[in-house]
Design goal:
By secondary structure, the protein is mostly beta strands. It is 5% helix and 20% strand. The protein contains one helix and four strands. A four-stranded antiparallel β-sheet has the order 2-1-3-4, with no helix packed on it. The longest helix has 4 residues.
């Protein structure tokens, strides 16, 4: 009896799509702290009343921001 080499059947595996930063483009990375343990995801823009303070976080880290002083001198309404 002669042994013939047989063909091995190979299962085709398709790579799984991983969730990337581009896939989560619609979600905001900015979070507003409301109370202790309460958070709110922010959209593209945010409006605040004058004198109101807020705490912002980006990916869990506290962030700070400031605006240029020349915007105060010209009474710019963009703030």
């Amino acid at each position: 009896n002669r042994i013939r080499p047989g063909r091995k059947r190979v299962k085709v595996r398709y790579p799984k799509e991983k969730e990337t930063e581009a896939g989560s483009k619609g979600q905001s990375i900015l979070t507003q702290v409301l109370d202790k343990g309460r958070f709110l995801r922010l959209g593209e823009s945010l409006s605040l009343n004058p004198g109101k303070t807020m705490e912002l976080r980006c990916k869990g880290t506290n962030i700070g921001w400031a605006y240029p002083s020349y915007l105060d001198t010209f009474n710019d309404n963009r703030l």
